[in-house]
Design goal:
Layout (H helix, E strand, L loop, with lengths): L4 H12 L5 H10 L13 H53 L6 E3 L2 E3 L2 H13 L6 H14 L1
Antiparallel strand pairs: 1-2
Helix pairs in contact: 4-5
Length: 147
Amino acid sequence: MRKGKTDMESLVEAYFDGLTGLEEEEFLRDYFRKDNLPETLKAYQPIFRYLAAERRETRRRTHLRPLRRTALAWSAAAAVLLLCLALPFAFRTHEAASPEVSYMYISGEKYTNIDLVRSEALKSLEHLAESNESALSSQIEALEAFF
């Protein structure tokens, strides 16, 4: 390593020319952390302190990336597991709460016999006004497809 005043100036020049290695660049960052620098080199101190701070920040970010990815992967796995466990219960409670039963009210009484419901619904549709025949036939077809 170069250590004299002129050696440091030539090392700084080599750095800005892109001719230094990793060891020399680390030496420069450490050297410019000092407070008692020669007057000829004090102008470079803010530059090297900034570069050292950026290097530390970059290292910190690159160390956090794998942790973030791992946390994201575990969070996604937990969400999928929770979804797989919760969905069957959601459908089971829905089925228990509202069983699929066809019913109708005739003169205020509830009827659940599917054959009676179907025949009364068809009778009701047949008594509709004859003026709109296409609407009637589409309603009958829809009702027959339903049953």
